[in-house]
Structure formats: structure tokens, C-alpha cells
TrEMBL record, chain A:
Residues 9-244 form the ABC transporter domain. Belongs to the ABC transporter superfamily. The keyword Transmembrane helix does not apply. Its main location: membrane. The keyword ATP-binding applies. It is found in: Cell membrane. InterPro entries: AAA+_ATPase (IPR003593), ABC_ATPase_HisP-typ (IPR030679), ABC_transporter-like_ATP-bd (IPR003439), ABC_transporter-like_CS (IPR017871), MetN_ABC_transporter-like (IPR050086), P-loop_NTPase (IPR027417). GO terms for molecular function: ATP binding. It is a peripheral membrane protein. This is Amino acid ABC transporter ATP-binding protein. Keywords: Amino-acid transport, ATP-binding, Cell membrane, Membrane, Nucleotide-binding, Transport. It comes from Bombilactobacillus thymidiniphilus.
Automatic annotation (TrEMBL), chain B:
NCBIfam families: HEQRo_perm_3TM. It is found in: Cell membrane. It comes from Bombilactobacillus thymidiniphilus. This is ABC transporter substrate-binding protein/permease. Keywords: Amino-acid transport, Cell membrane, Membrane, Signal, Transmembrane, Transmembrane helix, Transport. Its main location: membrane. The keyword rRNA-binding does not apply. The lineage of its organism: Bacteria, Bacillati, Bacillota, Bacilli, Lactobacillales. Belongs to the bacterial solute-binding protein 3 family. CDD domains: TM_PBP2 (cd06261). Signal peptide: none annotated. Residues 298-482 form the ABC transmembrane type-1 domain. The chain crosses the membrane at residues 293-322, 351-373, 463-482.
Amino acid sequence: MINQQTPLLSTEKLTKTFGQNIILNQIDAQIYQGQVICLIGPSGAGKSTFLRCLNLLDKPTSGSVFFKEQDLTTLSDKQLDDLRQKMGMVFQQFNLFPNMTVLDNLTLAPLKVKQLSEPQMIAKAQSLLHQVGLSAKKEAFPANLSGGQQQRVAIARALMMDPQVLLFDEPTSALDPEMVGEVLKVMQDLAQKGMTMIVVTHEMGFARNVADQIWFMAKGKIQEMTPPEQFFQQPQTVRAQEFLTKILAS
Amino acid sequence: MNKQKYWLPVLGIFVALIGCITINTPIKAADTIHENYVQKIKAKKELVMGTSPDFPPYEFVKNIHGKSTVVGLDVEVGQEIASDLGVKLVVERMDFDSLLVALETGKVDMVISGMNNTPQRAKSVSFSKNYYQSGQDLLIRQADIHRYHNYRSLSNRTIGAQTGSIQYSLVKQQAKKAKLKGMDKDNDLILALQTHKIDALAVDTATAKAFIQNTNGLIRIPSGFKTSSAGSAVAFPKGANSLVQVANQSITKIRKNDLINKVYLPKVSKYMTNHKSKKDRQKANSMWAYKDFFLAGIGYTLMISALSVCLGLLLGIFLSLMRLSKNSWAKKIAGAYIEFVRGTPLMVQLLFIYFGLGIVVNIPALLSGIIAVSLNSAAYVAEVIRSGINSINVGQKEAARSLGMSRQLTMRYVIFPQAIQNIWPALGNEFISLIKESSIVSVIGVKDLIYQSRLVQADTYRGVMPLVITMILYFIITFSLSRSMKYFERKMGHSND
Ligand SMILES: Nc1ncnc2c1ncn2[C@@H]1O[C@H](COP(=O)(O)OP(=O)(O)OP(=O)(O)O)[C@@H](O)[C@H]1O
Ligand SMILES: [Mg+2]
């Protein structure tokens, strides 16, 4: 199933600086079809920046980002808009559109961007809401949903565009502890269905159980790319060891 | 950092403005060598007279067959000149202060408005000889009849005069011990006199006579001013000598036959005294008789406001998008425009569009008013919208863009609706102040509510009642607007609570 020839998504010497600060330093990375990558590392390491460079929400300072064979850094705005449809993104703060119902949140982009038929999109939205366990909430406004429900709506919204890869930026960090499980469950289901995912997370249990690879990021570099068993048992770098003792202690 | 960059385009606009004005002056001067004013007027078959009709008996407005008409000595004089030229007389109304600008910028061919020939004015216009010479009086309250005898007995008292009038300078220069209060309208001054805001009002004899005929409780005393007795003259554009000549011939005829005292004054005073009994006068002066004036005023005010709100909103949206765009030129131009418009008074912008641009294209007063108010409002609306757009969490934009929505789609369907919802109350305030500020268009003679209330004041010699009615009408308009804004706010807001 895993295609070792061409990665679905990859970076070459990806560099991002903010003023004098080098946040991403010449990163080379490959994600293959169907892989689940968990990206972990200390706060400020550049995890969010890396994710945002993958779909060009942030423009890399230098280096390239490839989707299959296509170098995203060379594309026009229009081409980028088209490509972003293939890369869904889920945010820590959910970022649902507060002035729209759940159903409208889901159907807005497909209707306006792809100009697909409305009844079809409503049917699709309903089936995705069913998949994340929120069939009953389609007419609700985001403000009337719990954090966990909002995040599940956000995942369904990303799925509406039939993305080939999903980028998660700490999807459970803003949630009350009792709601973390329901969101992780939805993500685990997606992983099982073969969705390619890159997940920035502090949920070590999820990383250990679901990830194909752990990427440990610090100081602008991905320091380790290893399967979870190896990472949690014998982290190679001192930084990763320190990080793990800190996070497991808390 | 951005602030400094705005300076450049702002400076550019300034330079362009100054350029417009200075370039224009020599052209005007060059005209005087071979001027053909008379031919031009004969060719268009009409002579446009500018006047400020709040100055009985010289010029004032009369409700004739339901139509507000300018009548008075000056109109008769203007009529005489027009007939001598064989053309039709057209009367344009405007504020006294705007008259000379209108003349210089060609909005009117001549000004007859009880205007005195002063050396100051003679610098910018050409005067005919005087068609009428009047003494200077003071109006006082009847109760003060034994207290005041002329300006000397008014030390430490307040004397009122129309701003910019000859009486204003007389009081200023000669009645040094008295306090001077200037106002734009004689009607306001009369009101001030009646309500003890001032103790005397300096006016010329003909005006004084007109007012005491129509206002109870006022009397006329000699002013005691030493005057070089500058009489009233007709003003023409500087260097329009052929017109001055024609006018002088007409005036010679008027003076030789004493037309003013024998024909014009009796005719005009008929308009002023045609309500014989007090009861009749009250009936004619009841505000109901002037409902058409107020209705017309409401019509104009609503039209100007509605059009300016729409145009201002559209242009404001456009400007705010320019200011938020990636294009640095669009950004700078919009920024400069907003800074400039917000940094200059609406009154000046209005006068600039009507008179200043009038040199290049002749924009009618109503259109000038709508343009000025819209352009002004756009700058404020743009800032409100920009702040609304900036208030939307950046996560909204990122979410939309990550779904493949373009910048435009994101703005249109995600950011903008939320921004409008956030700024709705601020927009409502903006529209309400627009309605109120639109009253400034009356300065250039647009017949809005304020203008009409002035007419009614002048016509009925009642100061307060038209103001009260105008106030109530404005309040009804702004109150209904703020209510309907609230209604829509509630309709939109259901999602956020
Ligand atoms: N727009 C920006 N301008 C300047 N500096 C930025 C910007 N965005 C991020 N940074 C900086 O880049 C560094 C990495 O930020 P990033 O958000 O990618 O870290 P992170 O690994 O996601 O951390 P966290 O776990 O706290 O989310 C931080 O020091 C941050 O201050
Ligand atoms: Mg982050």
C-alpha cells in the first residue's frame, strides 16, 4: 500500500525565517500515501510553521514543498487555491465560521469553490456529520456546540473537499480533557481508513498507537524520524530524551 | 512606518489643488483684454443673478401660488437690466458668503444682494454704480426705547450684525465699547434680539423698516455711525466692463425716474404687508401653510442622504479593500485619500467641488452636494470597514484558505459578512451623522430641510417655530434609521448569542 517511489508530500531544504529568527532550517522530509505522522516537539520548535508551510499558508523563505511531483513554491495563486483543496487542515481553535450553521460551514467551500450541486453537497455533509457522530447538530451554530463537537465539525468540514492529506495542528489542545477522546477517536477512524495525516500533538498515547512514524522537531530541524516503538523506548537524541522525560512526568 | 509614506500622495493632491487654483487665475485675467460678456449672455438668452434671499426688502422669498419665489428690490433691478439686455432673468439663491465665489467661478453672471461696494470687494469683482443708497439704523426692543438712542448709548451692550456685512465693519470700527455678535442670517439676529441675546441689531434703513413692519416689539433708531455711505451696487466678474456699462445705463434710468421709491418699493412692500389684519397674518404664517416647503426639504434631505449612504458605502468598501490589498500603490492612494478627506472640513470639500471644480466642469448644486457628502462619508466608512475586517480573527481566513477558497471568495463569504456584523452599530452612527451633516449642502443653495426652514423663517418672520419643526423632522429621520439598523442587527445577530 505504501508507495516508496514518490512521496505524496515532501520538502526539500525547506527554510522559513521570521526576521532574524530561523524557524525552519533546511528541512528535508517525505510523507507517503496512507502514512500517519505525529509531529512532536517543544513549544516554539516550529511545528505549526512547518505545517503551514506544507500548504503554503505561510510562504517558505527558501526551499521547496512538493505535492507529488509539483513544486508548490512555483505555483500561481490560482493553482495554489486549487491545490489546497487536496490538503485539509484542522486547527487548534477549530476556526468554524461563527455566523453559519454547521451545515453551511460544511457546504460553503464545495459550493463556492467547486460549484457542485447543493442537494448533493447537503447529502454528503449529512453523511460526514453522521460519520463524526453529529447528525443531530446540522442546524446548530458553532457557539452552541461544545469544543469537542466543534472540532469534529471542523474535521468533517475539511473532509468535504475530499482531501488527499489532512494536516492537524494540535487538534485537542484547546479541549477540556473529557472531550479529547471523542476527537481522537474520529482521527483514529480516519487513519484506519487509510487517510494520510500529519498530526502535531502532545497526546503521546495517540502517537504511540496510531502513528506510523514519530517526527521529533527541535531547533528548526526534524531531529528524529522513527517508528513510535523505537522513539518511545530509545530516543536517539539528548533533546528527545529530555523532552520525553518532561512530558511523561507531567 | 506606513504613516510617513502616506505623506507623498497627500502632498501630491495638495500640489495638484494649488496648481488648479494658480493656473486658473492668469487665464481669468487674460480674459479681460477682449472680454465678450455681453455677447455671451445674449447668446445664452439668460442673465443669471445670484442673491441671498433673506434680506427684505432687497430680496426675500415669497410663497406665490405654492411656489417659493424670490422677490424684492434687487430682483426688480435685475429684471430691469435683463430686459435692457433683451434676455430672461434667472435667479440663483445661495448664502451671502458664497455669492462672490459663485461670481468668480462663473456660476452666476452677476450678484445683486444688497451688496455694498467696498474697496475690499472691488479687488475681486467689478461693481456698477450704486442703484440705491440707504442710511444705517439700529433695531432695538421697544422696551429699551428710552435707554438707547444710538450706538454710543450701547457701551458694554451687544450689537448684532450680519457677518461680512458693511454693518458688521461699522460696529467693529466705530462702536468699540459695544460687544459685537456676528451671525449669518438676519432672521437669526432678529431672533437673538427678541430673546435678549443681543441688545441692538445694525441694519440698513430699508431692512430696518421691513422688519419693524413685520415683527412686533421692535423699533428703529438712527445708528449714529459715520459712513462714507457706500450704496448698494451690482457686482459683475472682474473686468466684465461691457456688462457694467449696460447695468450703469439701466441704473441711470432707474435713478432718474426714481423707480425704486415710486415703483419697486410699493410693489415689493405689497408682498410684505399683504396680510392686513393680525389674524390674517397669523393664518398665513401658520406652519401648516408651509408644509410644502418642509415636504420638499424632507425630499431633498432624504434623497441626498440615501444616495450618499449608498455611494459612500460602495466607495468605502472599495477604499477599504484597496487599503488592505497587496498592491502597494492601491494601498497608498486609498490611505492618502482617507487621510486627506478626514483631515479637511466637509464644508470646504463641498465648496471645492461646487466652486473649485466648477471652473472645469459645471456641476449643479444638488449633484455637488451628493458627490461631496458621498466622497466624505466614503473615507469614514472605509476606516470603519477596515477596522471591522481587521477585527476578524486570522483563523477565519486561514480556515477558508485551507479549504481552497481564494482570497476573493474568503473576503466575500467569510470575512466580510462577519466584519459587517461587527461594525453594524458603528456604520449606523456613521449614517446618522451623514444625515445630519448633509445639512451643509444648504450653503450652496440645495433646497434641503435646513434651507427650507430658512426660507420659512424669512417668509414668516418667525424664528423658532421653523427650527423646532426642522429639528423634529431630522429626529424622525435619524430615529427611524437607527431603529431599522437595530432591527437588522437583531436579525443578523441570532448566531452569536
Ligand atoms: N508570523 C510570525 N512572525 C514572527 N515570528 C513568528 C511568526 N509565527 C511564528 N513565529 C515564531 O516562530 C517560532 C515557531 O512558532 P510555531 O508556532 O511554529 O511553534 P510551535 O512548534 O507550533 O509551538 P507551539 O507548540 O507553542 O504551538 C516561535 O518562536 C514563534 O514566535
Ligand atoms: Mg503550534
